[in-house]
């Protein structure tokens, strides 16, 4: 079992930065892959980034490569998403998730946080 709580969302102007955090509790965090997804109003949940259990391997959606960075600190049971050069199109609720593998699909993750709102103004 893994319980997840995301934080760090907010309102930022286009071109700005935010860092999201996802604090995890549970014994299996350090052996879990972690992912970030987002969902904008009226749209399906989409993959943003993922990181394997050790942090040695990461994956990104094409539109986020070079702008977003996922990282983790297993000693602190936390995963991060550093978001730079934000665009209005990045506005969404961002969810962290835990699962066995760094996959692109939401169905591959077993545990989800409640989401944190990111709003980028133009």
Measured on Cα atoms, how large is the radius of gyration? 13 Å
- Order of SSEs, N→C? EEEEEEEEEEE
Low-confidence stretches: none
Distance between the termini: 40 Å
Shape: globular
- Helix/sheet category: mainly beta
Biggest sheet statistics: 7 strands, mixed
- How many runs of DSSP E, i.e. beta strands? 11
Strand content: over 45%
As a percent range, the share of helical residues equals under 10%
The overall average pLDDT, rounded, is 94
The number of helical runs is: 0
What does this structure look like?
The chain is mostly beta strands. The chain contains no helices and 11 strands. The protein has strands at residues 3-7, 10-13, 18-25, 33-39, 46-51, 58-60, 68-73, 78-83, 92-99, 111-112, 116-121. Strands 2, 4, 5, 6, 9, 10 and 11 form a 7-stranded mixed sheet that branches. Strands 1-3-8-7 form a 4-stranded antiparallel sheet, with no helix packed on it.
Present the secondary structure layout.
Layout: E1 3-7, E2 10-13, E3 18-25, E4 33-39, E5 46-51, E6 58-60, E7 68-73, E8 78-83, E9 92-99, E10 111-112, E11 116-121
Parallel strand pairs: 2-11
Antiparallel strand pairs: 1-3, 3-8, 4-5, 4-9, 5-6, 7-8, 9-10, 9-11
What is this structure, in a nutshell?
With 122 residues, this protein is mainly beta.
Key structural traits:
single chain; 122 residues; mainly beta; 4-stranded antiparallel beta sheet
């Amino acid at each position: 079992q893994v319980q997840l709580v995301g934080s760090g969302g907010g309102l930022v102007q286009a071109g700005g930065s935010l860092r999201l955090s996802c604090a995890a509790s549970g014994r299996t965090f350090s052996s879990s892959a972690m992912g970030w997804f987002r969902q904008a109003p009226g749209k399906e949940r989409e993959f943003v980034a993922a990181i394997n259990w050790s942090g040695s391997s990461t994956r990104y959606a094409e539109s986020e490569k070079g702008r977003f960075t996922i990282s983790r600190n297993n000693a602190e049971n936390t995963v991060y998403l550093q978001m730079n050069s934000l665009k209005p199109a990045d506005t969404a609720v961002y969810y962290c998730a835990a699962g066995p593998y760094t996959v692109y699909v939401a169905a591959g993750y077993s545990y989800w946080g409640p989401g944190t709102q990111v709003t980028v103004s133009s």
